[in-house]
Give the backbone structure.
Amino acid sequence: MWRFGPGAESPREIEALVERLLGVDGAAAFWARFRDAFISEADIVRIAESGFDHVRLPINARGIQNADGSMIEAGLEQIDRLIGWCRAHDLWVLLDLHGAPGGQTGTNIDDSLGRPDLFFEARHRANTLTLWRELATRYAGDTTVLGYDLLNEPLPNEWQHRFADDLVELYRDLTREIRAVDADHLIMYEGSHWATNWSIFTEVWDDNSALQFHKYWSSPDRASIAPFLEARDRLGLPIYMGEGGENTLPWLYTAFRLYETEGIGWNFWPWKKIDTRTSPASIVPPAGWDDVSAAIPGGDVADAGRIFDELLENMRIENCRWQPDVVAAITGVAPRVVPAWGFGFRGAGESFSVAGGEPLAGIRADDAAGIRFAHRGDNPENPFEQSDGRDYRPAEQLVVDLRPGDWLEFEGGGSLAVEGARVIGPEGVIDGARVERSARGVRVVAERPVTLAGVELRGSGGRQRNRGVVLTHILQTGRTNRGDLARACGLSLASATNIVSDLVAEGLVHETGLIASRGGRPISLVEPRPEGAYLVGADVGERGVAVELFDLSMHRVDREFRGGREEENPETIAHDLHDALVALRDRNLEAWSSLVGIGLGLPGVVESTADGGQMLYAQSLGWEPVRVDELIDFDVPVFAENGAKTQAMAELWFGAARGVEHALVALLGRGVGMGIIADGRLQRGATSSAAEWGHMKIERGGALCRCGDRGCVEAYVGATAILDAWRATGATFEGSGWRAIGDLLETAEAGDARAAGVVEDVVDALGVALGSLVNLTNPQRIVIGGWVGLRLMEHLGPRIEAATRANALRRIGEQTDLVASTFGGDTVALGAAIMPLESLVREQRRP
């Protein structure tokens, strides 16, 4: 943290320097303020928002225990305070005894005075047993506490051999002390020699335990962690990388992807330090800090008080230099650059395919992918010793040679953006390779021989895209949790957690409760925040408009209908729409202030114009082309689409087509329309005119359609056509809508031959029209909606399905099912409201 050199590296040495420069009272005041400034609740918030799920809290025994073994309540309360912050922000806490009584390392990272006195003096051992028993007693049953990390990096260097048996015996005794008062919390054991020598782990000491290693400045590959993987498999215990960092962004990205591929939990170290490129937060050194460093051997600093006061302010997280690229590299969420040698760790055929690739000794040697040094000559055995995060020197740079057809996959889920990605060679951007999306991230495929140094993933498109994926899933499921989100969206838990935090901050999502987990802390649930945004959807027809207001949970808040006259024209429709919107607004002023936009489901073809507007072409209604902005004049974003397509949107987002990659959503009313879903997306065509199914011909020179042509689907299965056909048989009935269609179907069921004949013709026509589309599009599902469609499905569902299959190729027809719309007659308005909802998801548009 301090960036001091020899003479001020251990806790005692730093304390002595501060006391010499500030005096006894000044030093005491500094350390009291330090404990409030260095880690505050704002740090915990930032850690949670960055997508991490726990903190590892380093504890110096002197802060919580007196020399006689009694506990210091003020120090314990500081731990309580941090645990409380983490509980409030959904983080676990791993308690880490970083400096044991007497010191466990003999080096400068604890209170050792040249040797690990914990293993020399019985009083220090006894105090350590007491300390852990007291901590376990205090936190037994606290589900925010993840577990107990018994000793940080014990016995490095020569001490690892001299006291190996003593360390094992201490671990056994500590385990007994803890289990006497706490049967549940995880116990974590670190190996000796900076937690890298695991020779002591020959048996399982506790069933609820894990083994911890640390990793710095070495090759990020499977060979470097092979002893830890072997112990995991031999003993059946989980393993954890408890400290790793202080390196370059490429190293961080690669190392942490290795841990995640191997299912290894991890913790980055450190969170912040002075003037660093390797931590998420960099403390800006105060003016005169070099003078403090220069005074380590001796001497005073004239304005030491001012320097240390400024340091305290600078170390607050809000005053630190925030370095999101470090977080991105660690979590794998939208990193700016990934190194060529950082491809996945799943082996040939899964993470890479390089014909004739040779392994590089000492660096991912088990992956024969053609890694080599970019510049041969004077290459170091280990090119990863960049504790300051500096750029690689020419002799340290690594590249991968690819031939045409060779490829490398880089992992990061949907956060790795293909759009705008650039392939980087040793000297800069190169051609000859393409970047394409893959199941786990992106894949670089060589189109000619290339030498790859890395991939630049420009901008934040990946993060924005992931935000949309997560928000969509929350909106569609209604209630979920971070773990389920991560699995459903193909993201790491860190990524999903980070995005949820962003959505909470935007006011779009909120936490609504807890559910029990299989062990540990309860799981918090998240839901759409209903008042976070409002949306309007309008079903605009030739006989009036139905306008509906929805909150962000897509619950209908209010509804207004205007019209009801026969065959209105665009002018009267515009008047109806305006009146309905004004009425809704006046009744819902508070909601209107958070309105995202208005979506219109229109009766015709809706096309975009060169000036960014939209035109409605309603040929079947006899209307002249009309600009959408002539139908509505409100100072909010307006979106418009054909009504059949908005129905398909509703079914795709929330209804019978949700989760279906290929579907047909038919709207049967006075008019007839269709929405085609392919690869999970609504198809619009070149000018948004796709799927005008109502005007697809099923009989040459057949019945006259409202569009003026003959033989259209609408001329046989639209409401007007059906009732005209029944009337032509001599039947008399009331009305021309829902009731009349119902009377026809009930009359047919009662045995009336004329009504039954009309119904048979409708079923035959639908079978031909739908069966042809089944052959053309191979859907998994057909959804029938619209008020006529729902009436028909209520009475004739199995017959329509049989007729459809009879008019399709047998195999394709067998693979398609047919269901009724989920939402009844209000589907068009709901689907229209999804257009502004999609803009909120896609563009982060806030009211």
Observations:
- The chain is about 35% helix and 20% strand.
- The longest strand covers residues 92-99.
- The mean pLDDT is 92.
